[in-house]
Automatic annotation (TrEMBL), chains A, B:
SUPFAM superfamilies: Dimeric alpha+beta barrel. Its cofactor is heme b. The chain crosses the membrane at residues 35-56. It catalyses: heme b + 2 H(+) = protoporphyrin IX + Fe(2+). This is Deferrochelatase. It comes from the Bacteria.
Length: 445, 445
């Protein structure tokens, strides 16, 4: 039925060709290992300048953005300080009822192997989608076969329920190793959380400039997890709303405003060390070099927003809409002056504006590294787009960062009239894996 | 509250700068009219080689794909033979209960003006998102302010219920002008249609290489329609599954197979004339130069598919997975030989394979111009991705094209075990509008 023969015996060099190993190319005898090897070397060279585990500049990693690849193994997981890719597929998984400690470790090992392959532009499994035995299911689903990875990163996290299930059981013998920073998020004013799109034992954040590559990755990780874990909820994001590098332009959210101007940038090494990476002294030693991910699905009532006056929109945000400058004056990157006085005697920036309440100066210096995405999930029965911001933030400790900031916003932010938090999750994101080991190995050591 | 002043009096040249008119750029005194004018001239020159209303080659329209623009006005609507863009936002609208004939005409006029602007990279309205009066809502929502149009096309269609409502009323005095070709689709074997994601009085297909631009367009058309029409259902597609030009590579669907190899290509002028465009002799004269759009939301049971043997997957499709060649041999673009005999005495291509049942040779020569997209809408309660193909096809007459082809597929296609049609729509897509007029004017003449 097929021209493909089982090729378990074909040389490892051909296997390494991976996603590029379409018959036509293989027929020409093209050796891709050399090409990939060279790219790898370039990436390695780039890393020297950035420090291990840091994001690799795209210009270094490849000729075009689509061909960017980031190392999977390293001090930190990729997908945190990596320049935010354009598209997202995020999935929260629940462990299957029968899964035990060994099964969980095996799953994390299998995910690690597949993730390391896919992020380098190779199929999820050894045979790929079209080169394995005819009488077995392919070990890659194929829709990314001809696509460059587009900077794909896969970032794994552990939810509170992995450490202790809702019924109190310690399924995996790790309850005592739960980091203190991995708290259950409190209820915030106005929360309208839907349990079906909140929580999860595990999470995977897939980011790529090509949405098909991100979807392919989540789908294959879900396929690999079959019988061991299944998707609890998932979310596609079509447009990034944050920059994580000074090399990126500031994108716009669905309020039409620039978002993430004041985000932590990967170039700010000391801020990253201070606010993003957990350290050995923080408590759970196995989390050193890791981070904590908070996800919030924030529905925006865009139809109401769209009927609001321009001046009122700008008052709520605290910035002007075109340039993104603070209403105290200047340009996008001018620091806001919350004391600047307007003609009417009030401050030029409303004290309850979003820009002020989210600013480090009113949050004891606390910041977040945000990697959010715009989403549209069809529409509701009234014809309103089910649209908004899928907020993702990384931080060293949610107790001193996301939680107090969000408490302040949830109570006072003028923007609250136009947003509703409908989904939520918090996950401990372990440090990067070492080649030959697996993501989160320290938790089970 | 804002630095922006009402600028109703600013010169038309500045207004024409449109989306590019961010304060920083305007501050530098950059005249964008010249740039846009030049691009327009180039497009015009390109059109001479293609014939009016034909797709404009991207290399002609702009230096990079992102900057591609296609003319809105012309013999045919853009977005049909235009090289299929990477991303989709499709929306079906229902007219508001109180809308009358004049109101409908006014809506179509307003949509035309906004669509003509947005497809050229300008804001939906004259003031744009950030340059209008502070005490009025902006006439563009802003999230595409800094983005090139990415080849944005907006294609409008009229559903059967526009001509006569479900309750039999002729709300707009157009019942007698309903084209015979605009039939209600019959029920096909296996259909599992959900009314809430089927039908609609009007439709808009927004395609762009940038999803934020496509979403922005639908959102602004919905905003403009406020009180006159509202979204009945909408669909995002993240990856195109068809090529409509020989200049494009063949993409893959979520079965992991190349899709659209045998699609109608815009370069095949005689096939396009014969199979895509309605002509004056077909019946409804106002539809000459128009086409008929069939949309089907096809859920794929990808988890079951992923556990199927590679050989069986290839038997179902009738092509090999890697190259996309027919199982009778050759390469992707080799014509399938349905008579080629395999070693076991049967045909190399299964008679019930998808490639055979969809082939013109078993459909009396009927073909479709397909512009489908892969979608993922989260997941179901069992953790299975709610994923599949949002099928869109254009044709001269659904009675002789989509309907008989789909009847054959719905009855016999081996693929049926893995797909479920859950949404459906059929729309008459009028010819292109003339500048100064509006889309569908012929229907009301």
């Amino acid at each position: 039925m097929t021209q493909h023969q089982p090729d378990a015996e074909r040389p490892e060099a051909e296997e390494a060709a991976g996603r590029s190993g379409a018959p036509a190319e293989r027929g020409r005898g093209l050796s891709r290992r050399g090409v990939l090897g060279l790219a790898g070397a370039t990436v390695g060279a780039g890393l020297v300048g950035f420090g291990a585990g840091m994001a690799v500049d795209r210009a270094v990693a490849g000729g075009s953005p689509d061909s960017a690849t980031y190392p999977f193994y390293g001090t930190h997981q990729a997908g945190i300080t990596t320049p935010a890719q354009d598209r997202l597929h995020f999935a929260a998984f629940d462990a299957a009822p029968g899964l035990d400690r060994d099964g969980l470790i095996e799953l994390l090992h299998d995910w690690t192997v597949a993730a390391a392959r896919m992020t380098q532009g190779r199929p999820a499994g050894k045979y790929g989608p079209a080169s394995g035995p005819s009488d077995a299911p392919p070990d890659d689903t194929g829709e990314a076969l001809d696509l460059p990875p587009g900077g794909l990163t896969l970032t794994f996290g552990f939810g509170p329920t992995l450490f202790r299930a809702a019924d109190g059981t310690d399924r995996f013998g790790i309850a005592s190793r739960r980091p203190e920073a991995l708290v259950d998020l409190p209820r915030f004013a106005g929360d309208a959380l839907v349990p079906a799109i909140s929580g999860g034992d595990l999470c995977v954040q897939a980011c790529s400039d090509d949405p098909q590559v991100a979807v392919h990755a989540i789908r294959n990780l879900s396929r690999i997890a079959f019988g061991r874990a299944s998707i609890r909820w998932s979310q596609l994001g079509f447009g990034r709303t944050s920059s994580t590098s000074r090399s990126q332009t500031t994108p716009r959210n669905l309020f039409g405003f620039k978002d993430g101007t004041a985000n932590i940038k990967s170039e700010d090494q000391s801020v990253v060390e201070d606010q993003v990476w957990a350290s050995a002294g923080d408590g759970a030693g196995w989390m050193a070099g890791g981070s904590y991910l908070v996800a919030r699905k924030i529905r925006m009532v865009i139809e109401t927003w769209d009927r609001q006056q321009l001046g009122e929109q700008e008052r709520i945000i605290g910035r002007d809409k075109g340039e993104g400058a603070p209403l105290s004056g200047g340009t996008e990157f001018t620091e806001p002056n919350f004391l600047a006085v307007a003609k009417d005697g009030g401050t030029k920036i409303d004290p309850d504006s979003h820009v002020r309440l989210a600013h480090p100066s009113v949050n004891g210096g606390a910041q977040l590294l945000r990697r959010g995405y715009n989403f549209v999930d069809g529409n509701d029965e009234l014809g309103r787009l089910n649209a908004g911001l899928f907020f993702i933030a990384f931080q060293r400790d949610p107790r001193t960062q996301f939680i107090p900031i969000q408490r302040r916003l949830a109570t006072n932010d003028l923007m609250n009239e136009y947003v509703r938090h409908v989904g939520s999750g918090v996950f401990a994101v372990p440090p990067g894996a070492t080649e030959g080991s697996y993501v989160g190995a320290g938790l089970f050591a």
